[in-house]
Amino acid sequence: MNQVIDYQVATLVTTALGIRTSIAPEPAAAASRTATASQEEAEENLVSRPPVVVVLGHVDHGKTSLLDYIKSSRVADREIGAYQVEVDGNPITFLDTPGHAAFTAIRARGARVTDIAVLVVAADDGIMPQTLEAINHAKAAEVPIVVAINKMDLPGADPERVKRQLSENELLVEDWGGDIVSVNVSARTGEGINDLLENLELVAEIAELKANPDKQASGVVIEAKLDRKRGPSATILVTDGTLSVGDLIVAGAVSGRVRAMVDDKGKAVFSVTPGTPAEILGFGALPEAGDQLTVVANEREARTLIGGRDRAPGSRPLQSRALSLDEVVKQVDIGDIKEMTLVLKADVQGSLEAIRHSLGRLVDEDAKVRVLHTGVGAVTESDVLLASASEAVIISFSVGSEPSAERLSDRMGVEIRNYEIIYQLIDDIELALHGMLEPTM
Ligand code: GDP
């Protein structure tokens, strides 16, 4: 009951319990939202863009070595979290963060970034637990897999065994009558790597990846770091439109103006097109990996996007009494809609996603929940400040609060509600939304 499951799984469970299920029709509001979100771009505006490739596989099977080999032969040594190489004049973008942890973190935050997953399997070791995990992650993301059977230079290399093991896990490579491309490589000698790159290019060609460069950019933060001299910098990947120096940007809870951009070769650039990574300077604070990047027209739009914090921070007088869950349900001007703002903290990313997902279902015509910020780990002072500035309530799920955050919340009158069970959390919020929550002592 603490997990979001898909309809098929739910049906299996309910059938076993003798319960029949059916899918409820989408509410009109949700349906129209989907329609605008997936609005098709006019074909004539679309141009090809480079594929974005992630390298997955079991630990020590050679993910880093493979990325390094590809990088060393083609780009200057610059660590920006992603890089591009050209194959027959066509660029391919590699995320330079091997392993599915990063891939899943980005995906868990709702970003669709990768087009192809390279599954690295050591030829002397075969399929291992993390290989299977990687396969499942790629399948869940509906990303095509290209297999790289690595360490072919080793005497114990047995690529046929790897292919057989893959077939036992529903991945049929071409030799086995399937359509999965598999290439024998060695990240040590470089054997087969050109062949791998050419195959990636082919898979990308079939996928017909396109984007419209003639509009305001959107993208995703791949990684971010604080540089003592230069301030916050982030590697971003533009997914649509063109990002230019001077653009006002918002990523997650952070805004800024693009002051400078540097490409993977260390060259200053003034604009970046879809499928291309760059390091950007100009954020006001550190964004997080997986944050969606959006270009906005003005400061006002930036504030609205971040969470409507129109008031200058700190301008609100300290309160003596906590704003309780049902008190934060506000009448929003437009059409009498009730809105509740939340800051969500949880033990793990999975819980956050599950809670968010369930909260999304509470939305109806006259009430909605706005999640201002989510994070893994204990409630911190900065969560309390954020909640206070936005008249939000903090919901913590299976995590506590730092003592300093607790003191601050008392002082500022911010309620922190702790839950251990998702459905109780959701129930309370639903009740509060409808003004029916029992007062707490
Ligand atoms: P990762 O954990 O998947 O990123 O694996 P690494 O790239 O760190 O590689 C693990 C070990 O395998 C290192 O000692 C590499 O030098 C070695 N290795 C990687 N690729 C090859 C290869 O093609 N041949 C041989 N002989 N060793 C390799």
State the major sheet: 6 strands, mixed
The backbone outline, from C-alpha atoms, is: globular
First-residue to last-residue Cα separation:
28 Å
Separate helix tally: 12
> Which ions and ligands are bound to the chains?
guanosine-5'-diphosphate
Total number of β-strand segments?
22
Percent in strands: 25-35%
What do the pLDDT scores average to? 82
Low-confidence spans: 26-38, 308-322
**Rg, please?**
24 Å
Helix share, percent: 25-40%
Identify the strand order in the major beta sheet.
3-4-2-5-6-7
Short description:
The chain is of the alpha/beta class. 29% of the residues lie in helices and 27% in strands.
Secondary structure topology:
Blueprint (H helix, E strand, L loop, with lengths): L6 H10 L11 H10 L9 E2 L3 E6 L5 H12 L7 E6 L2 E6 L4 H9 L7 E7 L6 H12 L4 E6 L8 H10 L13 E3 L8 H15 L2 E2 L6 E10 L3 E10 L2 E2 L3 E4 L2 E9 L5 E2 L1 E2 L4 E7 L8 E5 L2 H8 L23 E3 L4 E10 L2 H12 L6 E10 L4 H9 L3 E5 L5 H10 L3 E4 L2 H12 L8
Parallel strand pairs: 2-4, 2-5, 5-6, 6-7, 19-20, 19-21, 21-22
Antiparallel strand pairs: 1-8, 3-4, 9-10, 9-17, 10-16, 11-15, 12-13, 12-17, 13-14, 13-16, 18-19
Helix pairs in contact: 9-12, 10-11
Task: Describe, in plain words, how this protein is organized in 3D.
With 441 residues, the chain is α/β, with parallel strands linked by helices. It is built from 12 helices and 22 strands. The protein has helices spanning 7-16, 28-37, 63-74, 100-108, 129-140, 159-168, 193-207, 299-306, 349-360, 381-389, 403-412, 422-433; strands spanning 47-48, 52-57, 82-87, 90-95, 116-122, 145-150, 182-184, 210-211, 218-227, 231-240, 243-244, 248-251, 254-262, 268-269, 271-272, 277-283, 292-296, 330-332, 337-346, 367-376, 393-397, 416-419. The strands form 5 sheets. A 6-stranded mixed sheet has the order 3-4-2-5-6-7, with helices on both faces. The protein has a 6-stranded antiparallel β-barrel with strand order 9-10-16-13-12-17. Strands 18, 19, 20, 21 and 22 form a 5-stranded mixed sheet that branches. Strand 21 (393-397), helix 11 (403-412) and strand 22 (416-419) form a beta-alpha-beta unit. Helix 9 (349-360) packs parallel to helix 12 and helix 10 packs parallel to helix 11 (403-412). The longest helix is centred in the middle third of the chain and has 15 residues, at 193-207. The chain is globular and about 65 Å long. The protein starts with 6 loop residues before the first helix and ends in an 8-residue tail after the last helix. Mean pLDDT is 82; it is low at 26-38 and 308-322. The site of guanosine-5'-diphosphate (GDP) has 16 residues, from helix 3. Residues 48-210 form the Tr-type G domain. Its main location: cytoplasm. GO terms for molecular function: GTP binding; GTPase activity; translation initiation factor activity.
